[in-house]
């Protein structure tokens, strides 16, 4: 299988930002006419014959650097696709060893993903996850939205397809977690992805250079019901590997058998982990959150009500 099999020529595709975003409606970039662009392309049943039903290694990867670049698209090959919850898929991509890990730095950084939709590229941000000890692999958790231009195409990619990405973008400021003794992470839906990136990095650091007193980490996840919780097996496994990690699920419409916290995320769910009588403990607190725009507004109000200072807060947006 040669790499060229997955490359195709496209006439100057326009790249558009999501509707409603600050960049909405603007043509952000045009590829040069005749430029070879790797896209999500496949033949036959959509799965390369050598790739069916297993995680594969793309033979050409050793020759072509599969690295993240900020101003150029790289087509990363999908080597595995797993179900990851209701309407969610976990895609595993191959990359040059350590390339994506070192670009992201475990700081919850995201990438732009381009998908061809009706002859032009649509671009949306997604947050890669790198399981601890994975060197030449990274993952994207994708939730499929009805009518979603990019998520529907991305959800349906198959092993052997390539997906174009560029970045990294955003994330925690370098060293922001240094000196923190308590870290509270709040994620709504796929807002768990930057948290996975940060927590896997903590696990990796703990395995290579264990801290004498590791920070206590509380991960509060808001979802609709039990089936909507993304990447449940990976969360369970993380809990056993990182003993200072506490995972709390808050479900808005759980099944009758659910006996955990319910409703919308409120001060009641967060206060036990952020409020402290000791000033020094307050200073050592870091709180971060990620979710849909209305969730960010809601969390901003909650943090203010709980007396959390701006410098202690990071929003992944
Ligand atoms: C920094 C950042 C990181 C992100 N990381 C991830 C990630 O790791 N995994 C992931 O799956 N997504 C992630 N997202 C969201 C992602 O970028 C897209 O917004 C999402 O996949 C929808 O894009 P779309 O093109 O399919 O929908 P669009 O075509 O933009 O929207 C079409 C319709 O889809 C529905 N829709 C879109 N987004 C939402 C939403 N959030 N909630 C409810 N309905 C919605 C609405 O009905 C909307 O009208 C991230 C967003 C940001 C800002």
Automatic annotation (TrEMBL):
Keyword Ubl conjugation: no
CDD domains for this protein: cyt_b5_reduct_like
Cofactor(s), names only, from the UniProt record: FAD
GO molecular function: oxidoreductase activity
InterPro entries according to UniProt: CBR-like, Cbr1-like_FAD-bd_dom, FAD-bd_FR_type, FNR_nucleotide-bd, OxRdtase_FAD/NAD-bd, Riboflavin_synthase-like_b-brl
Amino acids binding FAD: 124-126, 141, 143, 150-151, 193
Disordered: region residues: 1-54
FAD-binding FR-type domain mapped to chain residues: 71-175
Alphabetical keyword list: FAD, Flavoprotein, Oxidoreductase
Protein name stated in the entry: FAD-binding FR-type domain-containing protein
Organism from which the protein derives: Rhizochromulina marina
């Amino acid at each position: 299988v040669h790499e060229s099999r997955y490359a195709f020529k496209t006439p100057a595709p326009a790249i558009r930002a999501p509707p409603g975003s600050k960049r909405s409606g603007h043509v952000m970039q045009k590829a040069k006419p005749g430029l070879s662009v790797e896209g999500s392309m496949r033949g036959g049943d959509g799965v390369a014959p050598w790739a069916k039903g297993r995680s594969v290694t793309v033979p050409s990867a050793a020759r072509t650097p599969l690295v993240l670049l900020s101003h150029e698209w790289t087509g990363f090959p999908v080597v595995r696709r797993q179900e990851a919850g209701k309407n969610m898929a976990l895609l595993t991509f191959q990359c040059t060893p350590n390339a994506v890990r070192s670009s992201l730095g475990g700081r919850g950084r995201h990438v732009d993903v381009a998908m061809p939709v009706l002859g032009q590229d649509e671009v949306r941000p997604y947050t890669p996850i790198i399981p601890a000890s994975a060197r030449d692999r990274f993952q994207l958790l994708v939730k499929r939205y009805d009518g979603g231009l990019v998520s529907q195409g991305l959800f349906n990619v198959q092993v052997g397809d390539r997906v174009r990405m560029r970045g990294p973008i955003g994330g925690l400021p370098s060293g922001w977690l240094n000196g923190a003794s308590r870290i509270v992470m709040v994620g709504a839906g796929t807002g768990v992805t930057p948290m996975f990136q940060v927590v896997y990095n903590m696990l990796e650091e703990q395995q290579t250079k264990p801290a004498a007193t590791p920070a206590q980490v509380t991960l509060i996840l808001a979802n609709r019901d039990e089936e909507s919780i993304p990447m449940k097996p990976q969360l369970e496994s993380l809990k056993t590997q990182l003993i200072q990690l506490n995972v709390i699920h808050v479900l808005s419409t759980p099944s009758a058998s659910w006996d955990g916290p319910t409703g919308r995320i409120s001060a009641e769910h967060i206060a036990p982990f952020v409020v402290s009588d000791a000033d020094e403990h307050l200073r050592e607190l870091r709180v971060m959150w990620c979710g849909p725009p209305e969730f960010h507004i809601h969390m901003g109000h909650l943090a203010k009500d709980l007396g959390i200072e701006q410098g202690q807060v990071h929003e992944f947006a």
